[in-house]
Amino acid sequence: MEAIKRSLSRNKYSKKAQWNDRILMFKEIFFSISVILPIIFIIYMICSAFTFNAFE
Fold it and tell me: Which pTM was predicted?
């Protein structure tokens, strides 16, 4: 989130700093996706396992 705030607060900005902020932003987004997706998948697997056990 820091990268987004910095890029919004300063419009006059060197190109290198802008690219660094973009790379940081993509890293943060990618990291959050890579953390959230496995958790959702694990919860889904647990829930499906419980429902299958209930039906049998």
Answer: 0.45
